[in-house]
Amino acid sequence: MRLEYQILIALLLDFALGDPRWAPHPVRIIGRMIAALEGTARRAIPDVRLAGSLTALTVILTATLTTGALIWVAAWVHPRLGDAVSILLLYTTLAARDLADHSNGVYRALARFDLVEARRLVSWLVGRDTERLTEPEVVRAAVESVAENTVDGIIAPLFFAALGGPIAAMAYKAASTLDSMIGYRNERYIDFGRTAAKIDDGANWLPARFAAPIITAAAKLTGQRAAAAWKIARRDGRKHMSPNAGIAEAAFAGALGIRLGGVMQRRGRPVNLPEIGDPVVTLARGQILAANRMMYAAAGIAVAVFLAARWGIAALLKM
Fold this sequence. Notes:
The protein is mostly helical. The chain has one domain (3-318). The chain is 73% helix and 5% strand. The protein has helices at residues 3-17, 26-44, 48-77, 79-92, 96-111, 115-122, 135-182, 194-221, 226-236, 245-256, 286-318; strands spanning 260-266, 269-276.
């Protein structure tokens, strides 16, 4: 089966099923491997930065080789089994449905006027203190999570899947998981996680820049402010501490006419993030639903663009 069809089926599976909690998920397995290797590497290698670099490279290489081996063995048994395993692995690299389910749960809690539950649910999406968030702050956190994960959980995996199939997509997920676990600029990880953070920044550089036009098109498709999405992405996309995360957040902020960023609390300490977007409208819970509609539209546009590029390149090579 052509890779393009495998990717389409995997995305449809993600839309329909989301993350199957009952099944072993590669990202969770990668996470356990990172946790196990961190302690071993720190004890065995005195140079903390070297220990972290070797951990990151070992995790990515292991994920890549294991994915390739699984597909090879399955295809050796039967070509259709190889296709099925490839589709299943691609499916596990995508997170559109899971992201929508989590953020929609926050919306439903707010719609019931259960702010305590909304705070609890949004804490699963963000790395900030949520116990004292007001309703607009909960909405802001949820929309920021949808925006950032539109790249990490959808556009980037689709980009790497189109570029190199399940193996490339899983290598990307390994790099992304490393960054989410050890790529912090705190005392514990500033040196150990430096390589992981740099690899993730490099892997997301192109997908994040594809995100601006993709999200702008998604805004147009879903009836949001497409011109503002493009304008704010260009104006505010570089304000974020991350070289990549700010682009998607700025595009979402512009499309929804809201301001993201600003002051938040992390581990009891105030953190001042750059303000992104213009407060054309006030933050309200319905914007979570609007953000999810844009996220789904962006997924559809991204897969169409990346697969069309594959077909176009293949046609040129045959000429």
